[in-house]
Amino acid sequence: MTEDDLKRQSRRGPFASLYGIKDQHRALSTFTVIFLVLAGITALIVWLVCRPHDPKFKVVSLVINDFNFTSPPYMSTTMQFTVVTRNPNERVSFYYDQLSAFVSYKNQVITPPLSLPPLYHDPKSTVALSPVLGGGAVPVSVEVANGLKMDQSYGVVNLKLILTGKVRYKGGVIRTRHYGIYVNCDVSAGFKQGFTGQVPLLGSSECQVDA
């Protein structure tokens, strides 16, 4: 080391190296913050361009194979709904997980919840689901039992098909976290006691989707 080098080092003082390390850390922190902000802005722009819309669900057919009541009261039924779901997005696909389906009447469940397999839904595509629900005896209130019997005597039964689960959105390289999805399908069916098979659907069977 020359004499000039020793003089320069003495002018910087013993804390020069410490200040240099702090400057490096500050520069690294600034770069990290800027990178995260730019990445977030880019993701937001892509998400806004994709503009995801909720999926559409509609009940298109219903088959009722049995509809029985026993004391104290219990009821058992087997129903097969065919539900068509449409993805209206051009760039966004859906991943469904933990899906389950059940039927309710006057806000009381009348079929045990049925777990459905995971489902991937391509953009601008339509998928049909045909779960078979019921099969076992379910306890119901007297009001529900009497209401269903009265509806059968009139020839019109008003039911709700409920689908619940988790959904993820995927647009380009962006994939969201899981969101809850709740699908409520009001179904009016022409059905009388003793009849089995496919029943006519009365009115619109479009479903309300909360995702």
Automatic annotation (TrEMBL):
Q: Which segments cross the bilayer?
A: 27-50
Asked if the keyword Transmembrane belongs to this entry, the reply reads yes
Q: What is this protein called?
A: NDR1 HIN1 12
GO biological-process terms attached to the record: defense response to other organism
Q: How does it sit in the membrane?
A: Single-pass membrane protein
A GO CC term assigned to this protein in UniProt: plasmodesma
Instruction: Work out whether the entry's keyword set contains tRNA processing.
Output: no
Q: Where in the cell is it found?
A: Membrane
Query: Where is it predominantly found?
Result: membrane
Question: Which superkingdom, per the lineage?
Answer: Eukaryota
Q: Where is the Late embryogenesis abundant protein LEA-2 subgroup domain?
A: 85-184
Q: Which UniProt keywords apply?
A: Membrane, Transmembrane, Transmembrane helix
